[in-house]
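Now for today's protein.

===
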Amino acid sequence: MCPASDPADDGAPALRLHRPARLQDASDLRYVLTGWARARDLPEALIADLELAVYEALVNSAEHAYPDGTTGTLHLHAHHDDHTVRVTVTDHGQWRPQPAPDPLRGRGLPLIHLLADHAEITATDQGTVITMTWQLTRDRA
């Protein structure tokens, strides 16, 4: 496994990490992603959107993909080119529905769709992939 403390600032446009699907590891991955984005001189407004949307995807995967008592894996892949930043969060579990609606929860996926320029969620029997894309030409001021 790649350690979450890896700053990933070697100049490569891609970041690939995987960690156990636990809330603390989701936080660690968020901090590494933020450092990777800052090392590429991405605009701070974009970094803020990226950090929150990706964290929501990571937490959703950690909380919902694996049965209680099991820990699966979270995969984070980020890629940056001249026009876009694309981040993919992948799990290999089966998302479980919440037992009852909770008025204090359930805002993660709508928030992801609001913060990313494009978000796609693909659920299969092998897991769930959340792909978020941001256009670098968009004014975020």
